[in-house]
Specification:
It is a single chain. This protein is of the alpha/beta class. The protein is built from 15 helices and 15 strands. Strand 14 (400-405) and strand 15 form a beta hairpin. Helix 4 (121-136) crosses helix 5, helix 6 (193-210) packs parallel to helix 7 (228-240) and helix 8 packs parallel to helix 9 (277-286). The protein is globular and about 70 Å long. The chain starts with 9 loop residues before the first strand and ends with a strand. The mean pLDDT is 96. The structure holds N-(iminomethyl)-L-glutamic acid (NIG) and fe (iii) ion. Fe (iii) ion (FE) binds at residues 77, 79, 248, 322, 324.
Length: 415
């Protein structure tokens, strides 16, 4: 990729600037918000000056943003590279069939695997590009995207190559690709579970690492999914190849997934509807972030994770969409934020930090993204709203009117 042309430095002024900068956070204002404030974006597309509007440097052209500005939102858990449709099983589920029974009957993840098998790499990249563009319109500037619907080596490589293709576009958000190596057994491997795990760990994973197609590795650790031992094999090998783990744990049952994340120094333990006090303590002691996915538990009619225990233990709370065609049929991180407040009891500030600074940290991007602070990438979103609480109150509404990544426009509309 060639380096983009330098930008003309530009100042931006906002009625309210939610910086999410740890250096500005106080007990009363964890988001470090500034009223009548602004920032300068330098020629490299990074925030330079950030502070009171009155202190903006003169002589730099200034854009007035009438309303609220936040850091670009960061969606730290998505399956956005899915194709096809799972409407049939949704109807079955609403008629009373259970998610796991549907999976056993060849629906669920395996249905999305069949759709990947029928799509070309270009077709998957097209669907993903369109989906990412819709996410950008909601204020998202960074998105983690997992594979995991390929299931076979050929199809996992197809999905990850499609993710790389979509990520290379100038108009895409920043993409963090994750190899979800143990998601479900493909039908052809049901008779040879051990052989399947061996091939994923010993053959496919090294190839993906060598081709630079993933930055993280993931496994679905649960009853009726993969065991902690199987996930350990994948994560340990991945660590030797430079890929840290972020794992699906405790969505349906507590099989020790949180403790496992702690043992593996995973960057995130996601779901956690089922986690006990020992798991919570282990996450806190190891400094592993909790990835909260309220759209999934809402869809499945589950009780929330033990948010108060996680909070008390000092576990970093991240909020993500889990965008997928089965358990979280949405593309909207703002919807996840709204549900995190309404269903999980997060404060609006906790929810927003979970989709900005804390999300950046759990994706290994803390030095580059997640706040409006000098030196970080100028990723930001503007809304005609009076306050950040008005961002997490509504659901199903597109609120962002201007979205920039590294100082360049990704999306803009009048109002
Ligand atoms: O995060 N739990 C496993 N994986 C996804 C669901 C995938 C699907 O149903 O397609 C999740 O909920
Ligand atoms: Fe997921």
């Amino acid at each position: 990729m060639t380096a983009p042309a330098p930008l003309e430095p530009r100042a931006y002024r906002a009625r309210r600037l939610v910086t999410c900068d740890a250096a500005r956070a106080t007990a009363d204002d964890p988001l470090g918000a500034l009223d009548d404030a602004g920032f300068v974006v330098d020629e490299r597309g990074r925030f330079a000056f950030v502070g009171a509007a009155a202190d903006l440097p003169r002589g730099v052209p200034c854009t007035e943003l009438d309303g609220l500005v936040t850091p670009g939102l960061i969606d730290a858990h998505t399956h956005a590279a899915w194709v096809g449709s799972r409407h049939v099983e949704y109807a079955l589920r609403m008629a009373g069939a259970d998610y796991r029974a549907i999976a056993d009957a060849g629906g669920g993840i395996v249905a999305s695997h069949r759709a990947v098998a029928e799509a070309t790499e270009a077709a998957i990249a097209d669907v993903l590009t369109a989906r990412l563009a819709r996410m950008v319109r909601l204020g998202v500037t960074t998105c983690e995207v997992k594979s995991g619907y390929g299931l076979t080596p050929e199809l996992e490589l197809r999905q990850l190559s499609a993710i790389a293709q979509a990520a290379a576009r100038d108009d895409a958000p920043t993409i963090v690709p994750t190899f979800l190596g143990l998601h479900a057994l493909p039908p052809a491997a049901r008779a040879d579970r051990a052989g399947y795990v061996d091939r994923v760990v010993d053959v496919l994973l090294p190839e993906i690492a060598a081709r630079g197609l993933a930055r993280y590795v993931d496994a679905y650790v649960d009853a009726n999914a993969f065991t902690p031992d199987e996930a350990t094999r994948l994560a340990r090998r991945a660590a030797t190849l430079g890929l840290p783990a972020r794992l699906h744990v405790g969505q349906f049952a507590d099989v020790g997934g949180a403790e496992l994340c702690a043992e593996l120094s995973a960057h995130a333990a996601d779901h956690l509807e089922h986690v006990g006090p020992r798991g919570v303590d282990a996450l806190a002691a190891a400094g592993v972030a909790a990835g909260l996915l309220p759209v999934a538990s809402f869809t499945l009619g589950q009780a929330p994770p033990p948010v108060e225990a996680l909070r008390r233990a000092g576990v970093a709370l991240v909020v993500a969409s889990d965008a997928n065609p089965g358990t979280a049929p949405t593309e909207s991180l703002p919807l996840a934020l709204a549900l995190a407040v309404r269903l999980y009891g997060l404060t609006p500030a906790e929810a927003l930090l979970g989709a900005t600074r804390r999300a950046a940290a759990c994706l290994g991007l803390g030095a580059r993204k997640g706040a409006i602070a000098a030196g970080l990438d100028a990723d930001f979103a503007h809304y005609h709203l009076p306050h950040e609480i008005a961002l997490v109150q509504p659901w199903g509404t597109e609120l962002a009117t201007y979205v920039a990544r590294k100082g360049r426009t990704l999306y803009s509309r009048a109002r």
